[in-house]
Design goal:
single chain; 666 residues; alpha+beta; Phosphorylase Kinase, domain 1; Transferase(Phosphotransferase), domain 1; six-stranded antiparallel sheet; globular
């Protein structure tokens, strides 16, 4: 199918998504670096051992993931800034790259020496956690690097155990100082040059799917850029794991982990149970880590140097000095407010006027509210009706193909079909191929009936000869054509037949997305909630495996599952899946879309049903901003969102409700 196909048309080509052999191994990059082997895959890049054919030396080449580099406005500009950063960060506290370059194929590579090294992640995987003295030595050494990096004007943005590195050999007990921080400033500069500006685009593959998100700050989980306090939060996540053996927040997947950063409190470290150390020192370290892990940035340490000072103080100060000087024990600046003096006023000064005026105020207020609300209801008539239960159903597309252009292409395809028939007969692979071209033309142009007719013929022909598409794909496209004509019973049979044959053919799981979506839509339309949940849960399992390559598929499918739970009355899973969907959207570009608008609205409906009014209002406020462009300020969806928003505001913020009503009237 063409890359320019309209929405909701079948895609007959998805087999190239799952390439298992790394195509770079054995090749030479820019006539210089011979790729020998792949030595690791991280959230930022894939690392290769390579030979520099000009210098005759072994190097490590890190190729930045394509989905990250494709998001860069100008790779050349980023290359310049990265080289400046590498010149600045030449301290003993950092591991350094030798060079950075953009290849002829427009890929970004970071080059480092092929020096033996071991990282903290591999150390913890062997021993679980460090004794407190070794942990404090590591903290002291790594904080020197963090403070220096911040003073140079850079942020790390990707602190995790694999970026705490020891060169040459693994440290021994009592020798955990001298750690270096790897990749300092790289994530920040990539974020600065990215179109989306989102630092959380590094939630990716394998172990790193759980790697980076386990150490992300709440603001980064929401797609914000963050600042020095974000590095402090991530540093504390690493130290929490160093001291206890596990990070503070671990979910079943990256999305659930990010959600825990946003909503959950970390479990108590209970260091006295884990560590054979002084109880008072354990309490001080817990207090320091606890301050670093505050959800609100202003409640954390504001500078890495403050954190560094508290770690030093905790290890040397008397209890009196600790209580008097520890920044961890000081209230956040924003909470230190001046005292407000309320003037003394006699009871009679206010009571009599108040009693006299109450009746008048209440009367006027009641009349005003009556006027405002009725004006609002009247003004809402400009919005078309909206059915919440049809929010996620596929809208049937009317044909918008240019008729003259289509007729010419159709006539050409029919002539080709007739020519093949006369020369090779109907029982030939050539005839099956000509039929496929005609089906593709009809389906892409929205001529569902004609596409269905030719598909039926194609299914018959390919019973006798090999066709260009497997039978599973023919039934998949047939199901879609039937679905778009409201032939739900036939579409259900074809979709199930497609899934059955895909299992037999061992087709890639991504191919099941469309038939599962069709079944989910059919069952949703008929209010068959249990069947719909079953279809969408299977769909969720599939899209979860390809969410990096297809983030929009993951977001859309997860929200469909969330909403069918809402319609069935299961609010807890509905809230969970809506949040999971939106967190992924926020961390993968946060591009305004109709999907995001509906998801915020759907989440608000779920939250309101559970009595979480303030959270529902926040979700609706976001939905209103998004809905202004999808498809317009007077859309049915916008009307539904505003009605619900005002309904909730009346419960706890009546003045805000009045304000919205008056603005709508205007």
């Amino acid at each position: 199918m063409s890359d320019n196909q309209p929405p909701n048309t079948p895609d007959a080509s998805a087999f190239s998504l799952f390439q298992e052999v790394d195509p770079l191994i054995g090749t030479t990059i820019d006539e210089r670096f011979r790729i020998l082997e792949c030595i690791g895959r991280g959230s930022l890049s894939v690392a290769y051992k390579a030979r520099d054919t000009k210098a005759g030396e072994l190097r490590v080449l890190k190729k930045v993931h394509k989905h990250i580099s494709d998001n860069i406005r100008s790779l050349k500009a980023l290359e310049v800034d990265l080289k400046k950063m590498l010149q600045s960060c030449q301290s003993k506290h950092f591991t350094s790259y030798v060079d950075v370059f953009v290849s002829a194929a427009n890929d970004l590579y970071l080059i480092s020496p092929s020096t033996p090294q071991v990282n903290l992640e591999s150390i913890l995987s062997k021993i679980g956690r460090l004794p407190l003295p070794d942990a404090l030595a590591l903290a002291t050494s790594s904080l020197e690097a963090l403070v220096e990096g911040h003073k140079l004007g850079y942020l790390h943005k990707s602190l995790k155990p694999s970026n705490f590195v020891y060169l040459e050999s693994e440290p021994t007990p009592g020798d955990f100082g001298g750690v270096k921080l790897a990749d300092f400033g790289v994530a920040q500069l990539i974020g600065n040059h990215s179109v989306s500006k989102s630092q959380v685009q590094f939630m990716t593959h394998g172990r790193e799917t759980m790697g980076s998100p386990m150490y992300f700050s709440p603001e980064m989980c929401q797609g914000a850029n963050g600042d020095a306090r974000s590095d402090i939060y991530s540093f504390a996540c690493v130290m929490y794991e160093v001291l206890t053996g596990k990070p503070p927040f671990v979910g079943k997947n990256a999305i659930e982990t990010a959600y825990k950063h946003l909503k959950d409190d970390p479990a108590s470290m209970n260091l006295i149970e884990w560590q054979e150390a002084d109880e008072e020192l354990c309490k001080r370290v817990e207090t320091i880590i606890d301050k670093c892990l505050k959800k609100e940035q202003e409640n954390r340490y504001q500078k890495a140097s403050d954190l560094q000072a508290d770690f030093a103080l905790a290890q040397s100060a008397t209890e009196e000095d600790w209580q008097n000087n520890a920044i961890a024990l000081q209230a956040p600046q924003k909470l230190i407010a001046g005292k407000y003096v309320i003037p003394k006023i006699s009871r009679n000064t206010i009571v009599l006027p108040l009693v006299a005026g109450v009746g008048l105020i209440v009367g006027i207020s009641a009349l005003w509210l009556f006027f405002v609300t009725n004006s609002f209801n009247s003004s809402m008539n400009k919005y078309p009706a909206f059915n919440d239960n049809e929010m996620w159903l596929v809208a049937k597309k009317t044909n918008t193909t240019n008729k003259d252009s289509f007729n010419a292409r159709r006539d050409t395809a029919l002539d080709a079909l007739q020519l093949v028939r006369s020369e090779h007969g109907i029982n030939s692979e050539d005839y099956a191929g000509a039929l496929a071209a005609l089906v593709e033309l009809y389906a892409n142009s929205g001529y569902w009936k004609e596409a269905q007719k030719r598909l039926a013929e194609m299914l018959d022909v390919t019973e006798r000869v090999k066709g260009p598409w497997p039978k599973s794909q023919q039934y998949r496209i047939l199901a879609y054509c039937q679905f778009m004509q409201n032939q739900y019973e036939e579409a259900e049979k074809s979709a199930n037949e497609s899934l059955k044959r895909m299992a037999e053919e061992k087709a890639p799981s991504a191919m099941t997305i469309q038939p599962l979506n069709i079944l989910g839509n059919i069952y949703s339309s008929g209010n068959e909630y249990d069947k719909a949940v079953g279809a969408y849960e299977k769909l969720y399992q599939v899209v979860s495996t390809i969410k990096e390559e297809k983030p929009s598929n993951f977001c859309d499918s997860t929200s469909r599952l969330a909403d069918i739970y809402r319609r069935r009355g299961d609010m807890a899973p509905a809230e969970k899946f809506y949040n999971e969907s939106l967190v992924w959207w926020e961390t993968h570009g946060k591009i305004p879309s109709l999907y995001a608008t509906k998801s915020h609205y759907g989440l608000a409906l779920v939250l309101a049903k559970q009595g979480k009014i303030s959270q529902a209002e926040e979700a609706l406020s976001k939905a209103i901003k998004l809905a202004q462009n999808f498809p317009g300020k007077k859309s049915a969806l916008m009307g539904a969102i505003k009605r619900k928003y005002v309904e909730l505001l009346w419960k706890d913020k009546p003045l805000e409700a009045i304000k919205v009503c008056m603005s709508e009237k205007g």
